[in-house]
Queue: 2 jobs
Job 1
Amino acid sequence: MNYFSLFNLPETLTLDTQALASSYQTLQKLTHPDKFATASAQDRRIAMQKNAQVNDGYSVLKHPLTRAQHLLSLRGLTIDNEQHTLGDPEFLMQQMEWRETLEEIGSDENALEQMQDDIQALIRDKLTALDAMFEEDGSDNEDIANEIRKLTFIYKFSAQVEAQLDKLDDF
Amino acid sequence: MALLQIAEPGQSAAPHQRKLAVGIDLGTTNSLVATVRSGQPQTLPDSQGRTLLPSVVRYHGGEKTIGFPAQADANNDPVNTIVSVKRFLGKSQDEILATWPNLPYHFVQQSQGVALLADGKSRNPVEISADILRHLRHRAEASLGDELTGAVITVPAYFDDAQRQSTKDAAKLAGLHVLRLLNEPTAAAIAYGLDSGREGLIAVYDLGGGTFDISILRLHKGVFEVLSTGGNASLGGDDFDHAIVQHWTTQWELSESQQKSQYRRLVSLAKATKQALSDAPSITQTIDIDGQSFDASLERETFENLIAPLIKQTVKACRRALKDAEVSADEVLAVVMVGGSTRVPLVRVQVGEFFGQEPLTSIDPDQVVALGAASQADILAGNKPDNEMLLLDVLPLSLGIETMGGLVEKIIPRNTTIPVAKAQEFTTFKDGQTAMMVHVLQGERELVDDCRSLAKFTLTGIPPMTAGAAHIRVTFQVDADGLLNVTAQEKSTGVQAEIQVKPSFGLAEEHIAEMLKASMANAKDDMQQRMLKEQQVEAARVLEALEAALDEHRELLSEEEFAQLRQSMDTLAEISQGHSTDAIKAQIEVVDNASQAFAARRMDISIQQALAGKQVQDI
């Protein structure tokens, strides 16, 4: 299933989120089961299946990380839900450093926020680089996959920092 | 002179006849029924003008009483008077007793879950809920003068699959056609949305008798989107009453047996005190227990100290719901208050403080859910064909399966927009293995023991192969009501594996059918006649829809496909005039098969046209 064509959008990592939201609403109005409440059982079933695809497509296209994974799978390599360890020693070192820093920071709110800002900037850089890789002729799927795996880790780490910030909010 | 309309026998001459549909708020403490009349949603009162129906059923001397008279007897006959049965829907006996150890009822464990023994007969929570729903159905039919086409029934947003399924089963048992299960807070937002037509983020704070829900919704161009839901399925105004009772009994040093025997009385007094404190700063009163007089006075400040921790819990859930929706409190445009407990001033103040604005309270917080449900029922029944409003809902709790070591692997995360379908692949771990067990769970925790067990599926008929060679694709599908359906297929051979569903809670399909049969026998309903009529209506619906589709999109079919479909339709038209329910059902299936590809192509064409049209507009 190519979600870009379902939503009538160009196959690119950088996406017009307004156009995505607008396609989503149009598709919802055409396929939502409530629009078929008095239709035959078969039409209801087909609408529900299509609507489930629309919902899944929206959740995949909405987030840059899953969007990147989907783009790669359209190029023939599926890497979502995989158990894969990165073989990049430099990146592994950086991961460890980040974790140590996070531990040292503990509950220092300003430092945590600074760290989150840095991570967000890094994510933006990585996405720009990935976008270029997708657009370039002759990019290797494995190279792209490795960049996406790194990005997956960075997003996870960002969520950890966010969770630490949340804990501070609770008191 | 107007032209006379002549219709085919069995077909309606008035296609735009208004369909009778109602919204029902099946509440823990009170239930209501509402409908749309002259464009306005309104609750339907009983013969004495009361709109609320206490969710209380008393079984006594082979008879049952429902609502106010049952409530009046609750103190005298606590064992046979079932109060707030909604709490027990989709729950096991252990869970019920762990949460409410002091209930006066006789619980009996049955193969199909828990039942309550009252008036010498055991009834499960689905049957008792059906008694309340049937009462409301009769009230609506008496008031509207005809049979109902369907109903929208509301459920707490936090209800899991077992609780939703139980609610739907109860409606079925009560003879209601369920158009949709609707989340209570969403219904409340509809009630306000229709009046004010606001756009933006809306928070719905729903503190009822026994449950608390918070929902964050987005209204945009006629689409209601639930961004997140949260709450607590066992926190509500009843806990406020309980806190007051505890305060008194500790103060008075009542013995344990006195506490138990006086519990109902004290709860009633606490409830009245709580309500009075909404307007008065303090209440002075006494109560006699076993000949002794106790001072049951209470100041609002003391009351507020008692309930502050409970309100704090709700505010915490609000914060979490905002986080899940990835929005902040200052982005919220309006806060809707639902449920009788939001009349407590401290609740309004704390919620207002958290969201930084005065919450909306202009619609009666007891009625707002039923009114919204009625509006939605009116739309779903087809009374407003031009209505553009659309309601998107989310899965309230994550769905997952048991993996090695008693851990849960999430397959569909909470707050995913529904309907949704997700597939997961499994493989065999032994040579020649032909069966496999899948344990489906719902909840957010990592351990199986901490989640709600929904069902255990045994997949059989897997072709014998070497270990790891069979690939079984299990598809989890959640419909618009939030109900789960599971199918499985072995990929390499295409063999459709059989699934045995064993619901861990609630009732199996056959059990529902049995209860339905029994209830219809009682009501002197002719079950066979009714089933025949249902199939005839479905056949007419299928044919009518296909004729319309063929008029528009005949070109999507090859000559051969068209001939085949046409023939199956002609046969169906003929058979549906007869009296064999099974034959009609079988022929509908033949037509369905013959038109499946056609239906899918039509859907795709309509999507392409709509999106292309949009693009042209954009330019």
Job 2
Amino acid sequence: MRISRVQISNFRNFANLDVALGDHAVIVGENKVGKSNFLYALRLILDPSLPDTARKLREEDFWDGLARPLTSGDRVVISVDIADFESDDNQLAILAEHLIQAEPMVARLTYTWQPVAGLTTNPNKESDYEFIIYGGDRPENRINYEVRGRLPLELLPALRDCEAEMARWTRSPLRPILEKAAGMVDRDTLQTLAKGVDAATENLANIDEIKGVAGSITKKLTEMVGSAQALETALRFSPSDPDKLLRALRLFIDGGKRGLSEASLGSANILYFALKALEYDRLVADGDRDHTFLAIEEPEAHIHPSLQRLIFRNYLRPRLPVDNGTQGKSSTTLMTTHSPHIASVTPLRQIVILRTNTENKATEAASTAALDLTADEIADLERYIDVNRGELFLARGAILVEGDAERYIVPVLAKKQGYDLDELGISVCSISGTNFVPYAKLIGPTGLRIPFAVLTDLDPGAARNDGAVAPQRGLDRVAAILRAVGIEPPDGNDSDRLREAAEQNGIFLNNHTLEIGLFRPGLHGAFIQVMSEIGESEPMKQRMRDWGLNPASLDSARFLADIESVGKGRFAQRLATIVSHGECGSACPYYIRKGVEHVVGECQHR
Amino acid sequence: MSLANASTAKPRYMHAAEDLRANSEQWSVYESGGNCVVLAGPGSGKTKTLTIKMARMLAEDVRPPRGIACITYNNQCARELRKRLSQLGAYEGRRAFIGTLHSFCLQSIVMPYAPLAGLSAANPVKVASTTEIKELQEKALKKLTDDERWGPRFDNYRRTHLNRTHPSWKHGDEQAAKVIETYEALLAEEGLIDFDSMVLTGLQLVREHAWVRKALKARFPILVIDEYQDLGRALHEIVTHLCFPEGMQLLAVGDPDQSIYGFTGAEPSLLRELAQRPDVAKIELKLNYRCGSEIIHASEAALGEERDFESASDEPGEISFHERPDGLDDQAKFICTELIPKALARRKGRKIGDIAVLYLDKNDGDAMAAAAATARFQFIRVDGNNPYQPSPVTYWLEDCAAWCVGGWRTGAVSLSDLVRRWLAFNSSPQSDHQRRNMRVALVRFLRDNRVPEAPLRDWLGKMLDGFLQTCLDRETGLRDDAEKVAKLLNAVSVDGALQRYTVAIFGGQKGSPDQLNLSTLHSAKGLEYDIVILPGLEEGRIPYYNDDDRAIREKRRLFYVGLTRARHEVHLLYSGWYENQYGRRFKDGPSRFVEDVQRRLGGGASGPSDKNLPGSPAHLKRDGAVQQVKITHK
């Protein structure tokens, strides 16, 4: 069972959110974007521990963008679609009356906060509103506690103290597991064991030195409060009552060497999740509920970034094809985070991004759940995101480039044009090659809807002379990227029309390789300077100086080979520093300027 | 018992089950697993066995969130089952669906699934009223023919030719098929649904869509059906689709011998067929706790088949024959002036409510009602000439009245049940606030109108004006009920047939010890009385003069149902002649069924008679004066 889609209208940050979800969801977004409100919206439908008084909203719970005073047409509507339950008879029994689609089955549960029926004026006080929760898009088909009780959403709020919760018997997730086990232990065995523990404790307490300690405590107490009030203290490690014996069991880590208090916060967290998962499995196995939606708020609190990656790397990932992740089948995890470290190790399909629409200030969502990607593409993307620490997910815009050289140069050139990409939240992402298609699918208009540009070369790679080679590969690549973002490229061999379509969709072609593209429009000075600093031989430095004086004499192959010999990346790094210091002018190749402008424009447009 | 003990003690149904242990047949129903058909003779403790078994299945076999669907013959049966289950501590709201076939199809199949299957379903569902149905039927007929009236021919065709895509639909009775299709198109045009279309659409969804079957099976892994023999072919097909390929577990209870609703498409053979399946266990309940041995003896003769039923009663019971040569009115007068007073005198503590007069049709009912009124008996009448017809709302009104009359003090009627049913009538989306107001309006009305002696018209008028009329006008599911309530209001008006009705009479009718029961044989289904009086048993009327073999067999079962309602006494009355609606007399003697019984009890040959054969008992004189024959076996 999983939540396959969430729709939220007019609630808090959300004007009209509509997002598809995968098996689990990791909800990423900046502070204040509404991650907790997203979970709260689900709680209104699914959390049995939320009292009905909390299901009554207030005026300020309506989306800010709605004109005040509110009118009778304004209502908050929140719905979840649930899928993949039909193979489980219990889950189907709960949801069978709430279907909105038959094959495969999808059920919908909806919460509405609306003016009471028959209200003739505009609503102006709380009693003018009511909430209803119904299934299957049939408002008369009310759903009640039963559904929430059988398919509950449980919230683990941020900044909880896992260690303290596990230590407190009544709240510990260990309790139900131990109590169930205790119920199956033979009474006589327990009695015998309790006696044994009792005897061992007795022996320990009877060691003279230990006895002395207990005696001195009792003596001190008597001095302080008088003998009538004194507590009789004893040193033991377990109560002698067999019923309490099992409760006294504590969890140890590292093979029993260390107690929980010595565990790192991260380990305590993950242990807590593991115990919760066990509890959910047991509840389903015992027939007390049919599924749990576990909502975890910002689990990263107090956990070091590297530990975050370590802990969550496998948390939501299926280990074996048959296994639905370490979570087991009995629960679905919905986790909010603003940690790129957690996002960077999350299975790709489970990413949900919340961000603010700059026009109406409403929060909108995009997800990866429904992307049309092959297994190989997913693996490539996940690796890329892992290595780059999830920067893509938090970017407001992205400029996809082929290699590290562009990654150094583009931000500097942009700044010269007056665009501070860091400030704008636009990342320049090197994909180390030319396979832009999966990236375009991921962040393009059918995916995460992050404004982006692709800067790619026409690839005259094998050419001796520019323009002499048929620029077929670059154009094919452009057509493929266009298709990936849902645009059918123009027919035929009309490369101008293709370029036009590409530019409209943020794909910009460099007619040469990067360095030539940079050299030509006027950065000769910078090139000469870089080469004089890091060039490997005097002839090489001299060649660069000569070309600088007479750009028309440039021998592309030689030029590129020289740069290659010091390392393209290193060369670009130096070049970027020099350009940024403004010592050598600010000429910018056309395609880079256009690409930057495109992304900046799109970002402002949102 | 302390509170703590109560929670740890055995569930109530387990105690109740101990009562079944002594009866090995009932016990084997209780212990059954898998598909099971229970053939339950009259008075065999069927309902008791069924409810205890259901309580067990809810507690032991089906875990939440899954449940049991139980289909009953009518709303009254459903309420009875619900009441008994809650007495057994087992009724659990949504987990157990208990209701009629119509409501099961509508609520659990048509409403959730018809839109998903691409069938247009009006939302909210608008249930056609009786008047609308009649109008549309006439309209449909007029379009095709002038000399035909809507009758059983069409209803029956619609209820038995269930697969519209099969050639037999078009070619079986071409005209009927056309008329029905026209009628259904008219219904759809008006956005209306009638009771048959609820069932037909339900069947269509179950037959055509595996996912519908799967969803139903998930919700209800067990399907219980009471009175299977009267539920018709559509139900039989629904059961076949859900239980056999899909694997829903079946518990069907019924008695083919009591199948008397042939005109609705019911056939006794369907239950027999089910019981013969290799994947179904058949259990017969043969011990009759109701009827004396003599009555059982007589009823087997009436049925014309030996059933080996045994009586658990200490009294043998009596069958009496009364020839009243002066016709039906004379029979009615004789019943009220002789039979009833004597029967009351015969046993101390016997009340008139222990007596029922069961007859063939509403015209008999008119004659009986007139005689009973002359004799100044209070009576409750159930037949087509009733001044008002029962519906869920009129039943609820009766219970509201019963609460006002004294139920509030005795607890016999629960206020929470009245409120729950009232809120259920208001099924269109309402705000919590509105629902609270409705609840308050009802409770306030009931509290302020506990006036047993007030004329019913005042009480009812007040309720209609206060809140009921608004509900009837608004709820599209109650359009037929609204018509029936209007009829009731009309009947209790100052010049109506029930002008003398007080709240007390209205609320005290059901099972009242002080009211004589007048009912058609059909409506006596499932009931029992100390004394049953059957008037009008003339050859030509029962069986009807032009009944075919199949119809004759059904009439035999109808007569059998009448006989087996009695615990102690059965009185059979006849004149040997009858008049048809045009006043023409037919002298064909008493019903052949009566003669069969006489022959059996007189020690003659068993088995059904050919009426023209000699062998009528000598003590039966057709032309004599009052002749009372009393035969009591040892």
